[in-house]
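Job type: complex structure
Entries:
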Amino acid sequence: MSEIFKNHIEKFIKINVKEFEDIFSFFQLQQVRKKENVLVEGNVCKYHYFVLKGCLRKFFLTEKGTEQTTEFAIETWWMTDHISYERRLPSEFFIQAVENTEVLRIDSHSQEELLKAFPKMERYFRFIYQRAFAASQMRIKYLYDLSKEDFFQHFNKLYPEFVQRIPQHLIASFLGFTPEYLSEIRKRSHS
Amino acid sequence: MSEIFKNHIEKFIKINVKEFEDIFSFFQLQQVRKKENVLVEGNVCKYHYFVLKGCLRKFFLTEKGTEQTTEFAIETWWMTDHISYERRLPSEFFIQAVENTEVLRIDSHSQEELLKAFPKMERYFRFIYQRAFAASQMRIKYLYDLSKEDFFQHFNKLYPEFVQRIPQHLIASFLGFTPEYLSEIRKRSHS
């Protein structure tokens, strides 16, 4: 399983076997059962998660009490509530496993120690954050620009396996509409 | 003016005078007149901008032809269209000066050279992207969660000088409503 993480790091920087072993020692492996929460609103988000297998989602409870999903993370994606994680503030989010999931986790103190011990990991994380930020800029544009239906079509085109894999009510929650409406759109787009 | 940039870098990493001079040599200074575009939709966004003085905004044209502002950058903030800048793709955005503005700019090739020459700048940019990503995650939550009026109140509370400084029609464009509606909300919140 640690090969997945090593391969991901090597997409961005060169590391040897010994370095990877040392880097890996900063992380803990965690198994998360389907629907288990690794973060609950009101708690500090202690960890930054790297998904080895499975899928996490981040959501918050709206005033009406419904779950609004804002983010998914599948294999090789990172997830945390950054503001809570960095500033140790109570989180406004939940992080929950969509499937049985295996993650690597690191706390913010250890991440800082890791970066001190291996400055080359600054480059790795710089790429991770840079790409995440670029994607979120487009996301913000779509939230302003696209109708909910167009957003779904766009999402479906970009990430077809993702839309097949994730339960429909969670896709609906991410896109901000009801499962019934999603089902209607899917029927229309197939006809 | 270059002191602003040096001070900003020193918030995150230590550099000496000689190092800063070398780092600074990767950048070009540019004066941008109020309402001048440094990026036009359809062109590749060649530069990453650091604002020394003034204010930039990023916007796109909606299908109805109105300008939807998605981002502002004032002193010490960075701005670019990341996807266009990194992958050299045509941009879907405009970047325009809100006031007479002075920026440092760097192209993506030079930024990569800078990072090779000064690996410690990886740490600086890692912080820049990390913070930008954290802010955009909260932004996405607000876009889902808050009514337009609540979003304005929140924004006004967090950035009061900003709301005073930026022309009202641009604040309205950022928040996604008409200047008339903004004026109404402001009256209500003062009464």
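Summary: Chain B is about 50% helix and 20% strand. Residues 27 and 106 of chain B are 5 Å apart (CA to CA).
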